[in-house]
């Protein structure tokens, strides 16, 4: 078995999740990365391996309890000890409250909140006996305020923030660092480029967040000494209002 420390990224999307995975891989971690469809991880796996890193891709629905239980058990048994877990599933949708169906609301909650709970619980199970570890939940502007048209997304992100706070208070005294970075601004993604071109034009002015810079803050959170742990920090471009 590879006994290098393991970092798990649940929701290793093309922007922040992939950047976080690459950042930890550069430090010698074995990366276990998940998306619902494993084929979508091929580019990330190629990037990490080309740079000399070790990565294990998994197709996994983080909303399904048994899949998450089996994922963490398999990693611990067959890959290595989990030191870092990052929950980074996005569930951003925009609907008028009148157009928000029960199915939409439930699905967004499952992706943004329930999956976060399952991830955090399984991470805690393996970290508590070792009395160390880092659990990071990616937050958003919607973690702090519910804007027009974002009732489902904000509800899920509020719930995830509350989960992170509760876990931090319970697990901090057990040696486990729980953090909740709030990404308060547009990120350099294809979604922003294609749907918000005026905002994307601000990229050349450092007006949208660079995923690699977000990932650096995640790495620094993991490196903090336990006498100076950050639970919550907000990251936004210099021109973003708040």
From TrEMBL:
InterPro entries membership: NAD(P)-bd_dom_sf (IPR036291), SDR_fam (IPR002347)
Signal peptide as annotated in the record: none
SUPFAM superfamilies reported in the protein's UniProt record: NAD(P)-binding Rossmann-fold domains (SSF51735)
A Pfam match: adh_short
Protein name, per record: Short-chain dehydrogenase
């Amino acid at each position: 078995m590879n006994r290098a420390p393991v970092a798990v990224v649940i929701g290793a999307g093309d922007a922040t999740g992939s950047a976080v995975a690459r950042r930890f891989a550069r430090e010698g971690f074995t990366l276990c990365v998940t998306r619902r469809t494993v084929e979508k991880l091929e580019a990330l796996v190629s990037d990490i391996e080309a740079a000399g890193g070790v990565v294990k891709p998994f197709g996994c629905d983080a909303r399904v309890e048994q899949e998450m239980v089996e994922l963490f058990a398999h990693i611990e048994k067959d890959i290595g000890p989990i030191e870092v877990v990052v929950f980074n599933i996005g569930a951003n949708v925009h609907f008028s409250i009148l157009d928000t169906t029960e199915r939409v609301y439930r699905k967004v909650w499952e992706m943004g909140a329930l999956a976060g709970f399952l991830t955090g619980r399984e991470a805690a199970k393996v970290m508590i006996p070792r009395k160390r570890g880092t659990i990071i939940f990616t937050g958003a502007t919607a973690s702090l305020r519910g804007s027009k048209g974002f009732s489902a997304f904000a509800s899920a992100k509020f719930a995830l923030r509350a989960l992170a706070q509760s876990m931090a208070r319970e697990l901090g005294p057990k040696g486990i660092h729980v953090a909740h970075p709030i990404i308060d601004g547009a990120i350099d993604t294809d979604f922003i480029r294609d749907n918000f071109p005026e905002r994307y034009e601000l990229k050349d002015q450092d007006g949208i967040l660079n995923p690699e810079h977000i990932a650096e803050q995640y790495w620094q959170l993991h490196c903090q000494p336990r006498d100076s742990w950050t639970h919550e920090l907000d990251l936004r471009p210099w021109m973003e209002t708040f």
